[in-house]
Amino acid sequence: MRRVLGLLLTGILALSACAPSAPGAPGTPGTPSATVAETTTAAAPEPVQMTRQVGVQLFQWNWNSIARECTDVLGPNQFAFVLLSPAQEHIQGEQWWTSYQPVSYRIESKLGTRAEFQAMVEACHAAGVKVIADAVINHMAGIDGGTGVAGTAFTHKDYPGLYTEADFNTCATPSGNIENYMDQQQIQECQLSGLADLRTGEPYVREQIVGYLTDLLSLGVDGFRIDAAKHMPAADVEAIVGALDGDPIIISEVIRGSGEPIQPEDYLGAGDVFAFQFAKDIAGIVPGGAVRRALDVRDGSVPSEQAFTFITNHDTERNRQTLTYKDKDKYHLANLLMLAVPYGTPTLYGGYAFTDRDAGVPQVDGVVSDVECAEPRTDAKYEPGQWVCDHRTYAGLAQWVAAVGDAEPANVWQEGYAVAFDRGDLGLLAINGNSTKSIEPVLTTNLPDGLYCDAVVATECPEGQFEVKDGKVKVTVEPMTAAALSVNLRATR
Predict the structure, then answer these.
(1) Nearest by Cα to 8 from 53, 56, 54
(2) Residues 6 or more apart whose Cβ sits within 8 Å of residue 254
(3) pLDDT tens digits for range 92-101
(4) DSSP per residue over 15-43, as a string?
(5) Strand, coil or helix: what is 484?
(6) Residue (of 201, 187, 186, 197) closest to 230 by Cα position
(7) Strand runs (DSSP E) across 100-241, as ranges?
(8) Beta-ladder partners of 307
(9) In angstroms, rounded to a whole number, what is the distance separating the alpha carbons of residues 24 and 217?
(10) CB-based contact 338:53 (threshold 8 Å)
(11) Among 160, 157, 240, 162, which Cα is nearest to 203's?
(12) How would you label 342-362 residue by residue, b for 16+ Cβ within 10 Å and e otherwise?
């Protein structure tokens, strides 16, 4: 079962004229097709209610751009949430990682002002999209000192009016940094790459962190990604989030490491976790074409309702642990698989092109410029700094997931590098992992008779392409893509 993040909405919203058309899928060699029936339905079929489930991480997008994206794209297409980059004041610099070196808890950053942040949250909520803030609470900055982007002066372990040296952990390693990931004490008390490590078990430190998170909640955020949660004892994370009012969404960043003493399951008492192993396993499945195996992929013993799945994020795309936009059709296929299977809460990604792993996005006077999405490229050859808005490719599938909910796979069909299955009686998906050959199966389905459109390439269905009749449907799917049908994307005439 996936965690329910959105409100139930009438499915007909998915067919409204206000839904923008999704751009063509990067890396998609062809468009799925089907034998078009000569008959048409007499009237629009009754839609089912939809529950928003799919989210997107908009990495390094400024607040004004996220507000527009919620209004124009995410809201109308049934996206459930947007995951932000950190909002607090940080060190100066153009590199992306400056956002992860806080110097105060003021909501002033290169991504926008406090007022712009609050306006963004309000715009997203008006569009039906929840907002999840990226909370950097394990540490402060990793440099000797300077002045933050909002004017706050600091040194490595002295943040006037906030923290002094007594509020930071000390470490027995020669470097002061983590040197052995098999040593739990090092992981949770030593510095992560020189970042000043807070004593999160101390009441005063917890009070400051809770105050910061409470401030974000007062601005309307719905939850938090807990950055570097693995580097804090699970009990500390539980105590901090337990002190918050309400029931905010909590997603801890805990990377699974083979044989390591700290695992994602340790943090389920605080909320949910990101499923890093899921992303790594999908990255192993796709190149070999064994797409059927995706139905069985899990992240250890993390239950579906507490797993947030993803194919790439801002860290893994830089260390090449997972597939990324640079992998073209393989990346597209991986995203399709994540959305197709009923494990976890899927989180898409929108970022920017880069060759230098440290490079940030364009800035003007220290402020990130507004997003202008590049035209999708099938060869993935974007110029460094161009915005790669791949998440828009999956607008129709966000609606498909909202319709099928947590229905389990049924009528599983497999042949060679292809697999197809129903999701209960609400949807069907056929995916082709072959890089050179199309497939044309006649599938058994629980879908009701009628004419359907393909949610992989469409958000509206004026005329159906696929005919379901007497529990059968024939589809043609080109290499390295998929076709998806749902009861909410049937012909309206």
Answers:
(1) 53
(2) 229, 230, 262, 263, 264, 266, 267, 273, 274, 276
(3) 999 999 999 9
(4) GSTTSPPPPPPTT--S--B-PPPS---SS
(5) strand
(6) 187
(7) 130-135, 145-147, 153-155, 223-226
(8) 273
(9) 37
(10) no
(11) 240
(12) bbbbbbbbbbbbbeeeeebbe
**Cα–Cα dist 457/441, whole Å:** 19
Report the C-alpha gap between 160 and 153 in whole angstroms. 8
The whole-model pTM stands at 0.91
Q: Can you spell out the DSSP letters for 425-464?
A: TTEEEEEE--SS--B--EEE--SPSEEE--TTT-S--SS-
Q: How far apart are CA 220 and CA 131, in angstroms?
A: 8
Strands 272-274 and 472-474: what pairing?
A: unpaired
Please name the residue that has the structure tokens 């800035």: 363
Structure tokens at 148: 């933050």
pLDDT value, residue 32: 39
Q: pLDDT by residue (tens digit) across 258-312?
A: 999 999 999 999 999 999 999 999 999 999 989 999 999 999 999 999 999 999 9
Tokens found for residue 418: 């292809």
Q: Are strands 418-423 and 427-432 parallel, antiparallel or unpaired?
A: antiparallel
Residues forming the active site: 227, 253
The residues pairing with 368 across neighbouring beta strands, listed in sequence order, are: 363
| 8 Å CB contact between 232 and 178 | no
pLDDT for 113 equals 98
Q: What are phi and psi of 293, to 5 degrees?
A: -65, -20
Q: Is 424 exposed, middle or buried (0-12, 13-18, 19+ CB in 10 A)?
A: middle
> Alpha helices, DSSP H only, in 229-352?
234-242, 276-288, 316-319, 329-340
Strands (E), 90-211: 130-135, 145-147, 153-155
**Distance between start and end Cα atoms, the chain:** 34
CA distance 431 to 478: 9
Q: Say if CB 395 and CB 13 are below 8 A apart.
A: no
pLDDT digits 0-9 by tens, 438-476: 999 999 999 999 999 999 999 999 989 999 999 999 999
Instruction: Check residue 378 and give its pLDDT.
Output: 85
Could you tell me if 476 and 456 are in contact, meaning their C-beta atoms sit under 8 angstroms apart? no
